[in-house]
Design brief:
The chain has about 100 residues and is an alpha+beta fold. It contains three helices and four strands. It has helices at about 10-15, 35-55, 85-100; strands at about 20-25, 25-35, 60, 65-70. A four-stranded antiparallel β-sheet has the order 1-2-4-3. Strand 1 and strand 2 form a beta hairpin. Helix 2 (about 35-55) packs antiparallel against helix 3 (about 85-100). The longest helix is centred in the middle third of the chain and has 18 residues, at about 35-55.
């Protein structure tokens, strides 16, 4: 069963609970800056582990000392935003804090 898309108001309300995250088209997005390339790489590995646990994956980009994500649900009507996306975003937010990301 596909996840149900959230309404624009539901998305706006949930974004208020996730500092630094924003809506870019039909994706939740966020970039994090870390202290080094190694730290950024470690965070990517931890995000990948969470994505496997949730069986929900983002577009994940590793830069020199940055990690960027774009999250949406492919199975929800062409890539709409669902509660699954916010669950992943919350988990990534918690990981970022543990990695000292800004």
């Amino acid at each position: 069963m596909a996840a149900e898309p959230l309404s624009p108001q539901e998305i706006e309300d949930r974004l208020g609970e996730l500092p630094g995250w924003s809506l870019d088209g039909n994706r939740l997005t966020r970039s994090f800056r870390l202290g080094s390339h190694f730290a950024a790489t470690a965070m990517v590995v931890h995000i990948a582990q969470v994505q496997e646990e949730l069986d929900h994956h983002s577009d994940l980009t590793l830069g020199y000392n940055t990690v960027s994500l774009g999250v949406h649900t492919h199975s929800a009507g062409g890539g709409a935003i669902t509660e699954k996306d916010f669950e992943l975003a919350r988990r990534v937010q918690d990981l970022a804090a543990g990695h000292g990301a800004s």
